[in-house]
Amino acid sequence: MRKNYGDWPAKSIYRRTFLLAASAALASAQVSRADEPNETSLSQRAEKKGLSFGTQVNSGPLFSLKPYHDAVLRDASMIVPENEMKWRPTQPTERQSNYFNADRIARFAEDNALLLRGHTAVWHQNPPVWTKDIITSDEGQTVVLDHARELIGHFRGRVMEWDVVNEAIAPEDGMPDNLRNWPPYNKGGIDFIADCFHAAREADPKANLYYNDYSVYYQSQGRRRDAILSFLEKLKSRGAPIDGFGIQSHLIANAEFDENVYRRFLSQVADLGLKIRATELDVSDVRLGPDIDLRDAIVAAHTKLYLDVLFDEPAVIGLVTWGMTDRFSWLHEGWPRKDRLTQRCLPLDENFAKKPMWYAIAEAFDRAPSR
Ligand code: 9MR
Q1: Residue 14 lies in a domain
Q2: Angle between the 292-312 and 259-271 helix axes, to the nearest 10 degrees?
Q3: How many domains are contained in the chain?
Q4: Could you tell me if the CB of 335 is within 6 A of ligand 1?
Q5: Is the CB of 126 under 6 A from ligand 1?
Q6: pTM flag (> 0.90)
């Protein structure tokens, strides 16, 4: 199913930005670097600056494909399950939980001394089929809260950070406070979302609690930036125990990025006393032609542009990519290229070799001010 990223920037290519980025990117890509086996990993580069690097993992390949498993262990010090902790897979039948795959990932994190992010307790997109009528009834808020308590309680003490609520803001829906048009939000408003954070705090007092959302990076996304800022302010002023804002960072190579606008947004979030983590970085190449070197160079240049601004903000504590390798990305299904070529959206290629994007991340960590 195609995900609705409603207000991603319009499709026109910003020609001047494009040409500048492309020539700068090609120049840097020409210094092609051999894969050095002992090269410092992304998490080591991050940790030198007091930051952290993590990646999303999928239990399928993680436990069956050695090069994928090894790539995760080589670069990441934090993991987040792609789908395994979501409501639908963890409670496929009414009030009966199945944490088999999520538990395997949690054990993998512990066995390898990796930090674990939890994703996600409350999300309009993922309730199991059996909740369909309940969600719209008077019990809707209760069933969501019960689920959040049960899920977060199951992993009590093992998850460092939870995306308690995911993607609750949708200005285009025209609802009060810009909340998404979803029955539990329609009925309970921001107070209900504050209750979700209270439930999460009770279920695991040590976990850091995040609100996670997308599309706040580009020029055209001002309405979402304003809506999210005012939402975070209201949550804080109602005393919700929220520790951080997760900025998904599903980027688009060549979309127009104004660093001053983004800097200001990050500092406004920081002024609310919130930590910031980029939680789902990938860079779609849907707007680029088929040439692989050019695509890799422009994706890397875009990554650099974005991360340099992100890491300049002292409230930012780390980066998580939404996958490690182009072999596995939601973008292939969720936002396919017209020519059906595999998107080159992640740090490693389909055969797990480092791409210019890997180096762009590594070098952005190297340039980042120390925390
Ligand atoms: O990558 C995930 C994909 O495999 C799932 O089908 C989809 C629906 O559960 O979710 C994708 O991950 C999303 C994440 O949970 C929230 N932010 C957007 C991500 C990409 O759609």
Answers
A1: no
A2: 40
A3: 1
A4: no
A5: yes
A6: yes
